[in-house]
Amino acid sequence: MGTASEAISKLEEALEIYPKKHDTIWSLGNAQTSLPFITKDLEDAKLYFRRVMQCFQQAMEEVFISTWLF
User: Fold this and answer.
1) pLDDT confidence of residue 1
2) What is residue 57's DSSP assignment?
3) Which DSSP helix (H) or strand (E) runs through 69?
4) Which residues form a coiled coil (predicted)?
5) d(CA 54, CA 26)
6) How far apart are CA 46 and CA 32, in angstroms?
């Protein structure tokens, strides 16, 4: 989980600076996709999948909003 955790940490830092950057949110979701498969606890896996879905949903909403505004 080391490389994924490092990527997640860096992406979360980037989102602190610019929280609505859709490609960073999407990348965070991608980085989190491996986590449900390497955890042994089913409830933790479900939580990871929910976080991934939230990232992808938020990224799509940000794309829609930015497209709609311009």
Assistant:
1) 56
2) H
3) helix 42-69
4) none
5) 10
6) 12
> Do 61 and 26 meet the contact criterion of CB atoms below 8 Å apart?
no
Domain definitions of the chain by residue range: 2-69
Tell me, what amino acid is at 17? I
At residue 55, the 3 state secondary structure works out as helix
Task: Give the mean pLDDT per block of 10 residues along the chain (70 residues).
Answer: 86 96 96 92 96 96 80
In DSSP notation, 7-49 reads HHHHHHHHHHH-TT-HHHHHHHHHHHTTHHHH-S-HHHHHHHH
